[in-house]
């Protein structure tokens, strides 16, 4: 094992590099995995011109100093050189060990790289650098003598294009990298630049230099939330502060990144300062882990800066120290030291002098004023400073409070010997998380669902809450100002902001290979996994399994759910699961999902159903099983009338089947699947797609010469035509299909074809023929040998025939016959209990009540059906139910409600593509508009509806539109009266031909009244 900074050999038990003092990063030898990293690409400008005329040895010598400088800069900041390119290199930061500071580290490495090459004193050696942060596939490439860490993916190409675009001695970075490093590094926006291989110009930034802001100040500047809760932790800190009079107190705040350690420490420190305490604070930096005494230097500068700003004190605290200790401090502060006594000291003695001087100066400060010494991020402390801080934390000094912060993996070995109180920080509770969100998003209750989703998604980790909200605002999902934000549109996925990808990935890298493997299986299983399935898929000894689960529980990654009913595990928050899942390359994911699928299929106790099996089969790319389980899941949805969900599963099944090699059996399955899916597509309002499915099924049946399936597909297409086409087309196709279905000897498709043709006759206004065809279908479906095509049942198809036949009899004024059919439809709906059947029965029930002149009773039935249709997504029925409901309101004199409902009906019908429903709702919307006083608008709507109905062959609707025109036209002059009489006569003629007796009688009554009051115009 070698040091990441200087590449010196490191012993297996060492925590620090013996040569440079950098903290040891435990190595891994990973398989291929996805990583979120920052990529650095650098090369020498015009290297070809520099070496074109040189011998090979001379060419290498000319460029090698620059390459050595590049390597050194990359390694100094924890990067790995993944590839050398002759005149440059590619490096990666944040892998193979994840580091949430990969972007700032890469930027600092780039700055140091340019500086080192410039310091070579060779004006011909100039470099350019490109940086980009993104996802890559990382893997080890083993050769005969070594291993190389390689990365692949589109992200590296963007880094290379930025490098090519950069000017000499300049560093260009992508927007993704700039967002992650902003505050730690200063940038200049260069605008959008066209980069080779990218279709659109991309935002490009130039690095201007390192920032002098501390990590805390960078985070504080980004923060948009107030400090909440931490009542327990604050009480512990105050208790320690109250005890300092008796002697030094040391408190260690420990918690994962983002938990709020720094926020709590600084809030508490400011409270103490307000009470007269002196604050000495320092942050350990990941950029300086390899620099001896870097943390101590910053600590001393903090003391001296505080003393310099204290106008009541004129003396320098160093003046009281022995000379050798003064020289020790000068050495740490990089001041010139010309003292023979110091020069003669052995390294151990110098270290002792530095430690003694640091302790003396801290004690001197504490004697004068109560002091809080705040040292943050011990996990990034350099080795030399670590020894001194250990001594400082164990001082026997009154009025000194030492407050330390660290991540769990950076717990100092000396912490127990200084009798420190360890405060393990936990996520916020739900109330505090909601208070934080209320402060950021605003108190409006409209965001309550989003707030609860964020709480669940982030498990109340403060940084995660804030970054998720920031991501939603930056993406335009949340509009407004902080404290008053509103959702612009529904949020499907909360996602994982890039700013916390590395934070979570770094936590995952702390677990063992076997623990990570279990975590990946659990991630593939979903947010919650039962231990039995995990055990079967993992196939490890029980003691190993339990040890791993205990470790993952302790790390708060995968926690056990205490329940007597189930033995399950749950991710601490969804983001851990997502990062774990995303870290797997495609082949690993497929393998895990295949294992899960096999385990579930052979589990006799498995009860969750085909939807879960379909998910795992799809992710495993087992297309045959994805088709089978997808079809089963779709059928399960159809049983409960969940048409939108059924469509999703049918699409998965169809897409999966089409990935299987073409065979005759595959094609017959594909045709049957499309025909089975027809009701799901039509029922959910996707009528045009249902029509396309029929056409596709017909084309495939033709291709394999399957006449029976072709007839079935034509039947399916004919049914869709009733909603999407014109009555003339629907009747022509329907009659042909009924003839073909009868001659093919397939009674199931014949029954559906007859129902569809009866519906087509109804829409064309040929009510007598509609009644006869529907009655024929009913007879076939009521027999003992009744059959229905795939995707429905004889009882459900019989109900539809009864529904449509009842409606037809109602239009024809045959109320008793309509009543009998309605009772039969309602009985079938009660028997099946299926929402679709209940909605269909409600539709014809509403027609019947309106036909009987009972609009209030009709409204009650239709309202129930309308709510049921909306609840279950039965969108095909929504516009027709809304239309009849609007008519019921209209007949009750509820004109405003009628207009609102009929407007909704028309818009829904347009969205679905249901032509007849658009016309009918427009006709009755016009009548409601007329009753509300807008006569001209009503006349225009009716005229347009009448013309459209005439052109497209909806003769029954043409008659209703004509009668409506007669109703809304004021008989103000002879011309108007003539128009009314003409419309009434046309209505009577069409109604007489179609058999619509109630409409004919109403038109005749109005005509008689008109003639009685103005006979001279007749």
From TrEMBL:
Keywords: ATP-binding, Nucleotide-binding. One of its GO terms (biological process) is cyclic nucleotide biosynthetic process. Residues 38-163 form the Guanylate cyclase domain. GO terms for molecular function: adenylate cyclase activity; ATP binding. GO terms for cellular component: cytoplasm. SUPFAM superfamilies: Nucleotide cyclase (SSF55073), P-loop containing nucleoside triphosphate hydrolases (SSF52540), TPR-like (SSF48452). The keyword Nucleotide-binding applies. PANTHER family: GUANYLATE CYCLASE DOMAIN-CONTAINING PROTEIN (PTHR16305:SF28), TESTICULAR SOLUBLE ADENYLYL CYCLASE (PTHR16305). This is ATPase. It comes from Bradyrhizobium canariense.
């Amino acid at each position: 094992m070698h040091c990441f900074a200087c590449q010196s050999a490191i012993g297996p038990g060492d925590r620090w590099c013996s040569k440079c003092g950098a903290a040891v990063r435990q190595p891994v030898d990973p398989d291929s995995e996805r990583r979120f990293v920052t990529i650095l690409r650098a090369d020498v400008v015009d290297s070809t011109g520099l070496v074109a005329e040189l011998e090979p040895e001379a060419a290498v010598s000319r460029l090698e100093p620059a390459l050595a400088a590049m390597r050194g800069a990359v390694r100094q900041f924890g990067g790995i050189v993944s590839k050398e390119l002759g005149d440059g290199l590619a490096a990666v930061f944040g892998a193979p060990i994840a580091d949430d500071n990969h972007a700032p580290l890469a930027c600092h490495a780039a700055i140091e790289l340019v500086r080192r090459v410039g310091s070579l004193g060779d004006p011909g050696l100039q470099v350019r650098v490109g940086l980009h942060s993104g996802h890559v596939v990382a893997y080890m490439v083993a050769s005969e003598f070594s291993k190389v860490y390689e990365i692949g993916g589109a992200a590296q190409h963007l880094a290379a294009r930025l490098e090519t675009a950069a000017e000499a001695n300049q560093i260009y970075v992508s927007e993704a990298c700039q967002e992650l490093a902003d505050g730690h590094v200063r940038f200049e926006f260069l605008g959008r630049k066209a980069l080779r291989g990218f279709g659109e110009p991309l935002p490009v930034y130039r690095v201007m230099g390192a920032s002098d802001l501390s990590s805390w100040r960078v985070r504080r500047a980004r923060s948009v939330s107030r400090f909440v809760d931490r009542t327990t932790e604050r009480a512990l800190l105050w208790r320690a502060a109250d005890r300092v009079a008796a002697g030094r107190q040391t408190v260690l705040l420990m918690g994962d990144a983002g938990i709020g350690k720094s926020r709590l420490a600084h809030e508490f420190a400011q409270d103490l300062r307000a009470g007269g305490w002196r604050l000495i604070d320092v942050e350990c930096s990941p950029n300086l882990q390899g620099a001896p005494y870097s943390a101590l230097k910053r600590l001393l500068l903090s003391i001296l800066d505080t003393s310099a700003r204290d106008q009541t004190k004129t003396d320098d605290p160093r003046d009281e120290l022995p000379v050798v200790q003064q020289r020790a401090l000068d050495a740490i502060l990089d001041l010139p030291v010309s003292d023979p006594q110091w020069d003669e000291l052995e390294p151990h003695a110098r270290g002792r002098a530095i430690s003694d001087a640091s302790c003396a100066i801290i004690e001197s400060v504490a004697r004068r004023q109560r002091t809080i010494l705040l040292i943050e991020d011990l996990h990034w402390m350099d080795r030399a400073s670590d020894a001194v801080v250990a001594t400082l934390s164990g001082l026997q000094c009154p009025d000194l409070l030492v407050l330390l912060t660290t991540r769990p993996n950076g717990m100092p070995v000396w912490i127990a010997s200084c009798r420190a109180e360890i405060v393990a920080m936990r996520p916020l509770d739900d109330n505090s998380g909601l208070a934080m969100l209320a402060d950021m998003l605003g108190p409006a209750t409209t965001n309550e669902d989003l707030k609860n989703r964020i709480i669940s998604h982030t498990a109340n980790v403060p940084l995660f809450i804030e970054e998720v909200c920031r991501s939603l605002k930056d993406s335009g999902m949340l509009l407004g100002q902080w404290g008053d934000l509103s959702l612009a549109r529904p949020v499907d996925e909360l996602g994982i902001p890039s700013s916390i990808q590395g934070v979570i990935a770094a936590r995952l890298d702390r677990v063992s290979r076997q623990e990570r493997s279990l975590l990946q299986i659990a991630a593939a299983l979903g947010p919650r996994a039962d231990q039995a399935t995990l055990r079967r898929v993992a196939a490890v000894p029980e003691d190993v399994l339990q040890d791993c689960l205990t470790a993952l529980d302790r790390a708060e990654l995968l926690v056990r759910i205490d329940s007597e009913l189930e033995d399950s595990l749950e991710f601490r928050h969804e983001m851990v699961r997502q990062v774990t899942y995303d870290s797997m390359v495609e082949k690993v994911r497929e393998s895990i999902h295949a294992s899960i699928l096999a385990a579930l299929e052979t589990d006799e106790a498995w009860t969750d159903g085909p939807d879960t099996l379909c998910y795992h089969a799809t992710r495993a790319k087992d297309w045959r099983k994805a088709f089978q389980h997808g079809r089963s899941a779709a059928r399960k949805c159809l049983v409960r009338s969940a048409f939108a969900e059924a469509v999703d599963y049918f699409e998965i099944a169809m897409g999966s089947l089409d990935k299987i090699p073409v065979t005759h059996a595959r094609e017959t399955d594909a045709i049957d699947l499309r025909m089975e899916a027809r009701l799901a597509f039509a029922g959910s309002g996707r009528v045009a797609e249902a029509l396309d499915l029929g056409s596709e099924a017909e084309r495939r049946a033709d291709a394999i010469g399957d006449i029976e399936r072709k007839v079935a597909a034509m039947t399916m297409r004919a049914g869709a035509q009733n909603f999407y086409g014109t009555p003339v087309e629907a009747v022509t196709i329907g009659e042909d299909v009924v003839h073909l279905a009868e001659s093919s000897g397939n009674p199931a498709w014949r029954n559906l074809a007859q129902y569809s043709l009866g519906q087509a006759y109804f829409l064309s206004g040929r009510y007598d023929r509609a009644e006869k065809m529907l009655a024929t279908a009913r007879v076939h479906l009521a027999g003992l040998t009744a059959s229905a095509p795939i995707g429905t049942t004889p009882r459900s198809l019989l109900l539809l025939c009864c529904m449509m036949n009842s409606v037809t009899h109602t239009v024809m004024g045959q109320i008793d016959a309509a009543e009998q059919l309605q009772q039969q439809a309602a009985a079938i709906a009660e028997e099946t209990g299926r929402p679709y059947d209940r909605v269909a029965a409600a539709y014809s029930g509403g027609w019947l009540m309106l036909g009987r002149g009972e609009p209030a009773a009709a409204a009650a039935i239709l309202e129930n059906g309308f709510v049921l249709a909306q609840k279950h997504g039965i969108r095909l029925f929504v516009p027709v139910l809304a239309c009849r409901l609007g008519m019921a309101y209209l007949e009750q004199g509820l004109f405003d409600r009628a207009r609102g409902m009929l407007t909704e009906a028309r818009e829904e019908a347009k969205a679905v593509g249901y032509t007849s429903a658009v016309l009918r709702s427009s006709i009755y919307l016009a009548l409601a508009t007329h009753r509300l006083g807008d006569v001209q608008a009503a006349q225009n709507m009716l005229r347009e509806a009448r013309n459209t109905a005439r052109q497209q062959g909806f003769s029954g609707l043409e008659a209703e539109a004509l009668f409506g025109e007669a109703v809304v036209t004021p008989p103000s002059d002879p011309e108007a009266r003539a128009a009314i009489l003409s419309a009434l006569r046309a209505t009577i003629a069409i109604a007489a031909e179609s058999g619509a007796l109630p409409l004919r009688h109403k038109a005749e009554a109005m005509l008689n009244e008109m003639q009685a009051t103005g006979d001279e115009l007749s």
